[in-house]
């Protein structure tokens, strides 16, 4: 069941799933959502705090659950990422989404939530969040999210890179933050990669840790079964005192290149201003040619 498109006048909610955030921090995002014609309600977790977190686990759980169950709320935004989503995810009941589908939006730490929903057969959106929205440099990311939520036609074309592996594949689009994908392995939020197009991004990681995570996933037999791979932005990568000796494309090609599926590098998704929104769980076609890469949904967003 596809998620209904938002309409002007619809109500959307903002809740903290992870790190704390103040009302002031998300004002630009709230104003943008209102400019789209939406009514915005804020959860009690916005402005709450429990050390690093946006309030105690029980508060964040109840806050998000109330928005899941409220039929008037047509979409739920995680206010920001950080850390904390996996602390509450097993206490949530998602049964109402199966009869009343709605968008859940976020990225980074919220990858765990998006994967959990995919494991339940539900779509969600990997996209920018209110903390980051409404800024001069994020207009393209904001607009891509708006087009998905209102289900307007959308496809992406990416310039070529010398690292790309050419080819065409079709499959459900899944993925998100690489470290979170590894963290949820073996839990109720884990996802099946077989026959799917995986997209990856991360920030502030060491090169050796990127390698370690991919080794883990390869040893599990997951990288071998992909239909395709979209490599997003790996921002602010770090090295060790003794250099690892390989960069991001080299590491990824070592572990994924031998399997022959198309790989599109330098896709604008991740911890960057141009963080283009993606529908997790929607079937898409990835085509990588000498002219670049295209990612197109095979079924209409409308």
How do the strands and helices of this protein lay out in sequence?
Layout: E1 11-15, H1 27-35, E2 39-42, H2 57-69, E3 73-78, H3 85-88, H4 95-99, E4 103-106, H5 111-119, E5 124-126, H6 139-149, E6 155-158, E7 167-177, H7 178-183, E8 197-203, H8 207-219, E9 228-235, H9 248-256, E10 263-264, E11 278-280, E12 283-289, E13 292-297
Parallel strand pairs: 1-2, 1-3, 3-4, 4-5, 7-8, 8-9, 9-10
Antiparallel strand pairs: 5-11, 6-13, 7-12, 12-13
Note the main attributes of this structure.
alpha/beta, Rossmann fold, Glucose Oxidase, domain 1, globular
The CATH class label of the largest domain is Alpha Beta
> Helix proportion of residues, in percent?
25-40%
State the shape. globular
Instruction: State the CATH superfamily name of the largest domain.
Output: LD-carboxypeptidase A C-terminal domain-like
The strand order across the widest sheet is: 6-13-12-7-8-9-10
Descriptive account of the structure:
With 302 residues, the protein is of the alpha/beta class. It has 2 domains: 139 residues, Rossmann fold, CATH 3.40.50; 143 residues, 3-Layer(bba) Sandwich (Glucose Oxidase, domain 1), CATH 3.50.30. It contains 9 helices and 13 strands. The strands form 2 sheets. Strands 6-13-12-7-8-9-10 form a 7-stranded mixed β-sheet. Strands 2-1-3-4-5-11 form a 6-stranded mixed β-sheet, with helices on both faces. Strand 7, helix 7 and strand 8 form a beta-alpha-beta unit. Helix 8 runs parallel beside helix 9. The longest helix is centred in the N-terminal third of the chain and has 13 residues. The radius of gyration is 18 Å and the shape is globular. The mean pLDDT is 97.
């Amino acid at each position: 069941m596809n998620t209904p498109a938002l309409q002007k006048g619809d109500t959307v909610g903002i809740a903290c799933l992870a790190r704390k955030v103040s009302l002031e921090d998300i004002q630009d995002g709230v104003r943008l959502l209102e400019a789209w014609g939406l009514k915005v309600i804020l959860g009690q977790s916005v402005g709450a705090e429990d050390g690093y977190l946006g309030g105690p686990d029980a508060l964040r759980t109840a806050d998000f659950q109330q928005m899941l169950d409220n039929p008037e709320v047509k979409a739920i935004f995680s206010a920001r990422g950080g850390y904390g989503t996996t602390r509450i995810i097993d206490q949530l009941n998602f049964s109402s989404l199966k009869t009343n589908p709605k968008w859940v939006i976020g990225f980074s730490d919220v990858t765990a939530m998006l994967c959990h929903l995919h494991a339940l057969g539900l779509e969600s959106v990997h996209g920018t969040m209110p903390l980051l929205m409404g800024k001069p440099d994020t207009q393209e990311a904001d607009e891509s999210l708006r087009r998905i939520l209102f289900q307007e036609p959308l496809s992406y074309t990416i310039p070529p890179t010398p690292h790309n592996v050419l080819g065409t594949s079709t499959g459900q689009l899944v993925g998100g933050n690489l470290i979170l994908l590894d963290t949820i392995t073996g839990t109720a939020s884990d996802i099946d990669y077989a026959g799917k197009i995986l997209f990856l991004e991360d920030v502030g990681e060491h090169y050796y840790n990127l390698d370690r995570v991919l080794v883990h996933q390869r040893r599990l037999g997951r990288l071998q079964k992909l239909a395709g791979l979209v490599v997003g932005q790996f921002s602010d990568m770090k090295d060790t005192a003794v250099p690892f000796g390989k960069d991001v494309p080299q590491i990824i090609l070592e572990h994924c290149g031998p399997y022959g599926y198309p790989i599109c590098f330098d896709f604008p998704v991740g911890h960057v201003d141009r963080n283009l929104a993606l529908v997790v769980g929607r079937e898409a076609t990835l085509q990588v040619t000498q002219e670049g890469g295209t990612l197109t949904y095979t079924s209409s967003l409308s």
